[in-house]
Design goal:
The protein is 31% helix and 21% strand. By secondary structure, it is an alpha/beta fold. The chain has 2 domains: 256 residues, 3-Layer(aba) Sandwich (Aminopeptidase), CATH 3.40.630.40; 110 residues, no CATH class.
Length: 385
């Protein structure tokens, strides 16, 4: 099972209305490189707390579930990774505003930020885990999750001033996330994919995948960050599981293993390798439309479409990718990523993405320089007209 998310690079005219808001409220991103004299630091952020119970079903409260999972996760890290520093945004039942949670992470120049939550929806049969990274929602379901988690700011004093008028219940407020191009996105995706794999393999949970949505707490952090929904309290069976010591231990253990794997990769500083595909050709479900577009003057810059990410390598034959030929697999530890198309203009790769979006609705555009990923905005600056 592979995980994928989508980034929409089409800029809506409405975006111009929120540029001033973004400049005023969103803090500049500061790189949190792991300095030689600074330990690898993980921020554990149990959501909600205090007067904010989060989701509630019967006597089970989200704030209690995620605090227990968070404390267990911290213990696993401290007992097994002695060179890792653990910092909690809360380690007891207290209310911590969203902006303070991010401030704690930035103050410690953390290497990872993990926000823990439990989900709730109106359909009791829905169950499973999902891990979010920052970005614009692509489905109403993802937007609903973001609204639910962002609504905590309504419990903060003077929230309208703190968040410059952001309304967590207004869909229009989320237009701002269309402008987000997080420089830590790829590391966040890697961690999120690993967490989901561990939930499935270690804890035996249903894997709902890696998703993207506009979470304020992730936007204000300056390091790879994920928001984990450990299960649905609206599902009675899953709520009971999360309310047990064993259930919390398995969920915490799964996240710990993903953190351990992530750190192992960081320590090894391994580069990804291009893995060639030697599969027989098959008729693709969609062929790219060739357009005569100007090429980049920098031949080292190019764009691709990322289709998926998996923890284990899968064959790139067309039958595994809904008929698409010439899918490339790159090992970008701790996951394998699968790319389609290669163009030197953003316009052409957008056209190609539009052709295949019915096959891979969560596919997104990635920029490369000399076979290493770079932010799309940086790639565009390097391309001379």
């Amino acid at each position: 099972m592979f995980h994928s998310i989508i980034i929409n690079m089409d800029i809506s005219p409405k975006i111009t209305l929120v540029i001033a808001f973004l400049i005023l409220w969103f803090p500049p991103i500061v790189k949190s490189g792991n300095l030689p004299d600074k330990p690898f630091t993980v921020i554990i952020d149990p959501g909600h707390g205090g007067r904010d119970p989060g989701a509630v079903t019967k006597q089970i409260k989200e704030k209690d579930i995620v605090l227990n999972i968070g404390l267990k996760l911290g213990n696993y890290i401290q007992n097994n990774l002695p060179d890792v520093k653990v910092v909690y945004t809360r380690d007891k039942d207290v209310f911590v505003p969203l902006h303070q949670r991010a401030a704690i992470a930035n103050k410690h120049k953390a290497d990872l930020f993990i926000s823990l939550h439990a989900n709730y929806c109106g359909t009791p049969s829905i169950a499973g885990t999902e891990t979010f990274v920052l970005g614009l929602h692509r489905t109403e379901e993802n937007l609903d999750v973001a609204k639910k988690e962002n609504a905590v700011i309504l419990m903060e004093e003077d929230y309208s001033t703190t968040y410059q008028g952001f309304d967590p219940n207004s869909s229009e407020s989320y237009i701002m996330f269309e402008m987000v191009q997080d420089e830590h996105l790829y590391q966040s995706i890697n961690l999120a994919a690993s967490i989901q794999d561990q939930f499935r393999e270690r804890a035996g949970r249903r894997d709902r995948g890696v998703k993207q949505a506009g979470f304020l707490v992730l936007r204000q952090t300056s390091m790879p960050s994920v928001l984990v929904e450990a299960g649905f309290l609206s599902n009675p069976k899953e709520a009971n599981y999360m309310n047990t010591d064993d259930g919390q231990a398995y969920l915490a253990s799964a996240v710990f293993r993903a953190v351990r794997e992530y750190k192992k990769v960081v320590d090894s500083k391994s580069d990804y390798k291009l893995v060639a595909s030697n599969t027989p050709s098959e008729t693709p479900a969609a062929e790219p439309v060739k357009k005569e577009l100007p090429e980049s003057s920098d031949q080292n810059i190019y764009f691709c479409i990322q289709l998926a990410a998996t923890s284990k390598a899968i064959d790139t034959k067309p039958s595994n990718f809904k008929g698409l030929k010439q899918v490339e697999r790159k090992q970008m530890s701790p996951v394998y990523k699968y790319f389609y198309g290669k163009t030197q203009t953003l316009e052409e790769i957008k056209t190609l993405r539009n052709q295949i979006k019915h096959l891979f609705p969560d596919a997104f555009i990635v920029a490369f320089e000399k076979d290493k990923t770079i932010p799309i905005k940086k790639a565009l600056r390097k391309i001379k007209p």
